[in-house]
Amino acid sequence: MHVPHSPNRAPCRIPGLTCVLERLLIKTMRAIHDMSPTGRAAFPLLLLSYSIYVLLCPSLYHRYRIKTPGICHEIKIYTTGVMINSMYIVIFGIVSAFISAVSSNALHDAVRNGSMFDLKKALRNCADLNPKDENDQTPLHIAVSNGEMLLTNILIEARVDLNAKDKNGDTPILIAVSKGEMLIAKKLIHAKADLTIKDKNGDTPILIAVNKGEMLISKALIEAKADVNVKDKADRTPLIIAMSKGELLISLALIEAKADVKVTDENDRTPLHLCILAQGPARSNTQQYRELKLKVVAALVNAGAVIDTEDKFQKTPVQIAYDTKQKDIEDLLTKSGSTSNLK
């Protein structure tokens, strides 16, 4: 950076203070210019103002020195210089703040309008990449809420805050999972978004995904090492939720991920109880669903599920299988060592 210099500057009797001040201002200008897009945007105004100061200040200094030379007048000129320098720094701060505010609004507007071009332009001119609107939502929140995959990618590559919370306490990953945005959720997962964060209901992303039956998102979270034994406010784990909803594929993935198979729900039912009772939507009576259920029961047994434990209705898993006429499951449990009385 080249700062204009006047060759007519008269020697000062207190050069140390003046030089230190001017060098400090120049270094500050350089630092601000290099630090942020906002600094670069406002820098020409600061440079122009400082150039005028450099050109005018020596003439004032000569006039005072020629007419009434003396240290007192030189101190006055130096004091004036301090005030002028300070004024320019304040002006620069105000201009920077204004440009930053405009750029922040531009970020939100670009995302709301779905404009990739405007978003990239706003990112170049904005110092704050995580501005919040009236709902405390950042541009990333809005991009995720609107299902804007490309805009989400751009923001993630710009290294925005992946874990910022809006006024509801939701982060982008919580929004993506709750809306079933599988591709966006996977992108956030790969970008290392916090998978332990909880929403206002106390649910983590994996609890939300399982509750909504989002199999692909659930598997992505499991592969990313999300806690498969985390509990919601009702003390239910993802496996209990999946079994109670008849989501057998999700249940199988959780079992393979070493989820606790001995945990119980409010009725003292284990995942094995719930699996036998499971009825999938409109497909529970199909041969394919019955075969899948048998596979999940076998996986539970192999994972160490207790076969003869009773729920609060004094029913064991094999008794439930007997009562519901699921002969294949009944036979499997009997062969696995069940000693429950079926009479």
From TrEMBL:
Decide whether keyword Transmembrane is in the record: yes
User: What superkingdom does the record give?
Assistant: Eukaryota
Question: According to the record, where are the ANK repeats?
Answer: 135-167, 168-200, 201-233, 234-266
* Keywords of this entry: ANK repeat, Membrane, Repeat, Transmembrane, Transmembrane helix
InterPro entries given in the database record: Ankyrin_rpt, Ankyrin_rpt-contain_sf
- Please indicate if the UniProt record lists Transferase as a keyword: no
- Give the transmembrane ranges: 41-61, 82-102
- Where would one find coiled-coil regions in this protein? none
Among PANTHER family, the record links this protein to: ANKYRIN REPEAT CONTAINING, ANKYRIN REPEAT DOMAIN-CONTAINING PROTEIN 16
* Protein name per the record: Ankyrin repeats (3 copies) domain-containing protein
Q: Which organism is it from?
A: Ditylenchus destructor
